[in-house]
Amino acid sequence: MKRIALGIAYNGHAWQGWQTQPHGQTVQDCLELALSRFAAQPIGTVCAGRTDTGVHALNQVIHLDTPIERAQESWVRGTNAHLPPSVAVQWAREVDTAFHARFSAASRTYTYVILNARVRHPLWDGRVGWVHQMLDVAAMREAANALLGEHDFSSFRSSQCQAKSPVRLMHKVDVASHGQKIIVRLTANAFLHHMVRNIMGALVQVGQGREDEGYIARLLLARDRTLGAPTFSAHGLYLTEVDYPGYEFPRVSTEGFSLDSINFEDKL
After folding, report:
1. What's the topology of domain 2-104?
2. Domain locations in the chain?
3. Which has the closest alpha carbon to 250: 35, 7, 2?
4. H or E, element range at 141
5. Could you report the per-residue pLDDT of 28-57, keeping only the tens digit for each?
6. Segments in the chain below pLDDT 50
7. Is 110 annotated as belonging to a binding site?
8. Tell me, which fold does domain 107-239 have in CATH?
9. How far apart are CA 220 and CA 107, in angstroms?
10. Which of 52, 65, 243, 260 is catalytic?
11. Residues in Cβ contact with 66 at an 8 Å cutoff, skipping those fewer than 6 apart
């Protein structure tokens, strides 16, 4: 048996999340169907991060086991021939059997894009979170610093989360303004169910002046989800990077779709 790693990009707006469901309207169901058609045999997959309904990915990483022989480029082009426009394999690499898309990952990076504008923009429907009140980015950045380090993230955890422990290690947090966009990047060893969206809900509360800059720190200490902010929209959330020590995978090209350089006026 060979183990193959694939990099997958998808627009999650039309999908009911990553993980397979009986209705079949998930990215995993769609991808496994395409892989099975290409390989002419059933193919199962394991992913780096199970994204929620409406969440996008620039670089989801999966692995599969198969006895068949195919060139790396064939896995890309052959599978893509059976996929809809919203999902595409970006690269393929044969890896050793010690590699595991989920357990070999040292960290994952999620990026959230907020359109901070007086009115919503229909061309960005499903691709950004929209806030019409002007947000205080400096206050959001100061509040977000409390997330760094190892914490119990119970206050940012969905009631449906099945993780055995709420403790996670946050490596990096960045909050930056790019014209009408606010870009929030979070890198951690792993994330809980709805963790990023619940963090975003709290940061927006700070940006709107409804909470002060110590709000995030207080929520972490409280370890109580009922005290947190509402879960923010999935639309602006992207899985942008997964780090695997000892493995060198291609970086997905975002030429023409850099989250930092998106200019809304250019898209009119």
Report:
1. Alpha-Beta Plaits (3.30.70)
2. 2-104, 107-239
3. 7
4. helix 137-144
5. 999 999 999 999 999 999 999 999 999 999
6. 262-268
7. yes
8. Alpha-Beta Plaits (3.30.70)
9. 21
10. 52
11. 1, 2, 4, 39, 41, 43
